[in-house]
Fold these 2 entries.
Entry 1:
Amino acid sequence: MRRIATAAYLFVGSCLLGLLGCQSLRSADAPLSRLDASTGTTVVIAREPMVFARLDAQFSRSARDYVYLGPAQTNRQGVREYFLWIGVASTLDRGYFAPENELPIEIEIMIQGEPMAFELDDWPPPYLSPESANLYSTPVELQGRLASRITYDQLRLINEARPDRIFVRGADARMRAFSVWTTSSDWADFLN
Amino acid sequence: MRWISDTLSGGTGPILEVRVAPFESCRLLGSGTGIASEAYRPVGGQLASLTEVEYESLGLGDDILFFRFERPVGYSISQSSDLRHVIVKIDEPGSLIRDSAPRTDATVPAATVAGPPNDNSRSAGGQVPQNVTLRVPQLTADFVINLQSTRESVEQATIESIAVPDGRTVYVSEITQGGQLWHRLRLGFFDSEAQANAALQPLRALFPRAWIGRAQASEIDTASRTDFATGGTVIERIMTAAIAATATPRGTESAGLTAEQITQLTNAAETAMLDRRYEDAAGLYAQLLAEPGPHQQRARENLGVARERLGQIDRATAEFRAYLTEYPNDAESARVMQRLESLTTARMPPQPTLRRAMTLEESAWDFVSGVSQYYRRDVDTFDADREDFVGLSALMTDVDFSSRRNGSRFDLLSRISASHFHDLIGEDNRGPGDQTRVTYAYFDMLDTERDWSLRLGRQSLHNWGVLGRFDGIHASYGIRTDQRVHFVSGYPVDTTRDGVETNRQFYGLAWDFDELIGEADVSVFLNDQRIEGIDARRAVGAEIHYANERGNVTAMVDYDVDYAEINSILTLGAWRLSDRTTLSGLVDVRKSPILTTRNALIGQPVTTIDELLIVWTEDEIRQLAVDRTAQSTTLTIGASQSIGERFQINVDLTSTDIDGTVASGGVNAIPGTGAQTYLTTTLVGTSLFGRNDVSMFNVRVGGGDDFETRYLTWDARFPIGRRLRLNPRLRIAVRDGLLDGTMRETVNLGLRVLYNTRRHFRFEFEVGADQARRSNATTETTTSGYYVNLGYRANY
């Protein structure tokens, strides 16, 4: 029995170390530029997205909802277009222990003291193939991918603002606040 | 989308035009109502001699697909069954054109090119077919300069200071964002961000916080139809609308409609509204607004209603505001104001819940109920020649029922929660026997007008000196918005198996003060309890609660004035250092059990105070109560740290100490536990193996003067589809006796399966086994056992 207990401690300890190592699944080698081979469109992204989180404490104190924000540029034969890409994920068992959340229809970010709203559409746009859906690799599996057509100027302002909070509006018109989880500094590389 | 018609123009570079239109349900959502243009060269298109596909939408409802070929082709066209694709089949090279005539009688307009050449355009490289005009993808000309955003209206002088470039429009857009109205002075529209940036440079000094954005199609459409002068002329009028209202100021030149035509249009518009053809109605009302006359007033309001029904809230808001501007003192203005307020309120974020004002509306009765039944069987097995021992075999039924009704003044609520334990072993076989328990059975009434409430029945409180469950009354009254008094009285309940026991009674008073000390809420209370006619407890105390978005702290003290003893001092709190890190702490010093005269019965061969009074005086009984009451001290500090998005580690250090009790009244002394210290580490991981799975690893080490203990647990939940969850569990525990050399090792292994039906029901099955080994210097025994738990829960 003592051997079983010792073995169990070693097993769990190894799992702990392994799982902590698995934390950094977000690839450090995420490409900045990729080609959508089916449509011939080039997509450029930042190295890492901004991550915002929301705790629903009545259901769990260790699982959360997440929103990933990242810039994207598409290049179709020299015509460049900018997007604010949104990835929606949750580690909460929604649909079972907690009610499901609908995908957001709008995101609001405070920039220069002014709330700036960005309406969201499905990602990818029609001129990209489904292979471009997962623009950023995230530790948590995404449940939705959305984007807002945006300008370079607005992306620059978002990066300068480094918001510590964003507001997400669902189809039910309710606004939910998400607080910053990690702030990527790599938008500067994208913008430069 | 539905395919409407197609036509092929011949020539050396044939163009196939396919006209499509969104379905009505999509049109109501705005599809096909904006100006858009896209083009691209499909990969592999050369196989069909296809050089380019272009899509044009002029916001008129019908959209056009242009297919450009490098040679004459034959084709056939059809629509897919999912109504999302148009299928174009091209004949083999050399085939003649099959059909060059339009398939409908509709006139096909000449193809139009959207927008001037893009700044980013460049000629395509490589060899191109001789007779084909190459086109590059173009962006929608929706780039707009937001010159300034203010909470106040834009001043005329500000607008007049703008030198408007040729072909551009200056306008003001009002938008409610973050619950506040913003006025945005804008200059548009440009084909590209570079164009917009170039136009912005001369204006930077005047508008240093300007930014370039993209406008919605509806905003472009409305701004383009306004009366603003463009091309360098100072504008004469500001359209202050979120999406500008239909800009037809009175007095402008009319289309020359006769009175009869106006009547016909009005009737047609009203018919369209009744038929719920809101898009048609909006168009007709817009025509009526272009014609000066008294009919414009009604048309303005109805246009707003049509926009609202189409879900175009911003445009509806603009129409209602325009109405109130044009007809501020009209008898109908109140109605229009109501319409506007309902739109504005609906768009605001949820407000903090306020105490509800009296309303004339009443709700129907609302019933919520739940029932669960579980069969549980616990069996111990032994390694010697002993029969298995069934420790538990029972069917447990729980029922919970509540009803609620919100009246115009009174809110009513009732709740009953009960359970029945049906022992399948039987008392004859040393089973526990059947038991029925009533956990809650109360009736609530709340007077929303006078702010008093009453709860009557079996209930539970742990505030204001009340020690838990009781049968009685709790009444409260709001003296002011920040003060509330409470009165509680009843019979304490020892166990939910018991009925109403009247040998003990208590009453208590409490006073709540909101934000009495800064932002901290304070309550003071007194609680008096009697048992069989003598004083059991007379306590005074206070509670303080403080909370903000960073954390919370609660402190409580309970002092018995008769016994001159502090019953409990409790302080606990949690503080969030950051979104990832939380600290917590607890200091709990209390009598164990809480000091009441009833403690004198502990260890005695009698069960009532009256029986004790035969032998002891009241003062001696009170001394026995003190002697039977130990003091417990618990200190805990903890920290919680999130690691990435999927992991969280919690660490807690706890120290407990329970004093011993002295010997008295024929009851032996009970030694104290001594200080015991535990360190618990928990690692929680979510979404490790798939979506939404949870794994929790828990390690606990600790001990006291005479023992050491180690616990290891693993508890996980794995989703299998939407309705099934697997919940494996493992627990390993080891306890070493330091003084007697004993050791006990236990391993528990279990699997629980949860299944949720689409509605109402959850089924649960659990099976587990355990093995325990006890050993000392001379002997070793091993026991094992298993359990089964099977049941369901239904909620309605």
Entry 2:
Amino acid sequence: MIHQYKSNGFNIVLDVESGAVHIVDDVAYDLIPLMEERPDIDIREAASLTGNKYGEEELKEAISEINRLREEGTLYAKDIYEPYVDKFSESKAKDPVVKAMCLHIAHDCNLRCKYCFAEEGEYHGRRALMSFEVGAKALDYLIEHSGNRRNLEVDFFGGEPTMNFEVVKKLVEYGRSKEKEFNKNFRFTLTTNGVLLNDEMLEFANKEMGNLVLSIDGRKEVNDRMRPTATGTGSYDIILPKFLKAAELREQKNYYVRGTYTHYNRDFAADVLHLNDLGFEQISVEPVVCDPKEPYALKEEDLDTLLEQYDILAEEVIKRRKSGKFINFFHFMIDLKGGPCIAKRLSGCGSGGEYISVTPWGDIYPCHQFTGEEKFLMGNVFEGIKNDKIAALFASSNVYTKEECKACFAKFYCSGGCAANSYHATGDINGNYTLGCTLQRKRIECAIMIKAALADEEDFNDKQENTSIAAD
Amino acid sequence: MKHIRTLNTRDYKKSMAKGGCGECQTSCQSACKTSCTVGNQSCENKKR
């Protein structure tokens, strides 16, 4: 499948099944769709079908180049992966491996964020803090079910994990004490709203957390509207100095400031740039996911504005990087050369299989977004997986089980998208959250355009994008 | 080539041979939590 588009002065052609990205001139751009089924196209016919805009010589050259790429397998490559993914899914179902865990260390929160899918930390359930015993059992479960995987990821999540920080510290110590014996390497992440973050916590996080996710939405008025404290005052002034300190102490690596944009700030590019202007270099700002009836929900009629915002942001990212001011926007990150293998691209985020979430009392769910939805309760860390049907459903879900994904150019970048978003939008994890898909496709187009624009920049590789991969 | 410039990308077909080691980062452990960002991740297979 070919996907071609024009962006910021570039003609871009994606050969979806090989993963190749071509930057082409106008004549090649016009010829590529015409030649998919016609490698031996006649020059006169090519001239006529392209509106007699091009000379014979340039048509000949472009035809020859297109056919060369066809022979090399980087243009018009066929989709050969469906049998491969079937084999892969069978082995996943037969021999499941867990390698990443979202540990709900606190189902409680000291902010009252209006869009919170965790419902102020409670996840449709009760307020609770995870005990060390449950957490240790969860880490044991992870080690025991991780097979040959060496790198194990644990995200201390909530609610707000700093409300139970002593347990976080003890669990890190416990995990580290098991690494050598089982030949594992724990990569810990802390996701925090920053309210309780203090110097001691930061010091601990810098020593032990491979990644730190700091929640802030952008401009003060935007943040404070959606992220108030329990008394209704804004959180921006409380958290900002702490986050700036955290970013500085981490030398602008292995962290993200992470925000959510809603219907209220459709001009979200300004929030991303505001965060960069404040001094943050690693930034993620994502579309809100919520009940469409909420007043802050994104709507179909917002799409034109939102797509334009990504264009504005992409152009500004290029401008800033070229001028020597670094900014990494998480959703424009794309590793073309060293990105995931096709097996990973087909199988997605791993929710309900490689990736699970664990509640404060030890229940296992397919991921943090399913936590508390009893239908998706898989088991617990004491007795293991009890609901094999849920495990099998997630193991069998991939790009090819989603009808609408098969024909989408983005399928090997988003891997079929988020199962929770699909479920919440359509009632089926193999459905499609169409609004999210439209935004995702736009982000991929922008990300690739940025690669094209910066490909010649000598300084592009001097400062790398945040990979969030901690050193072993 | 005069009309086409190809960016350096990973060949998916070739990655079938040694892919699937599973050592790479889970996308939701990075910074998303509400979308799927597999394409953002880097391969960590040292033998690829």
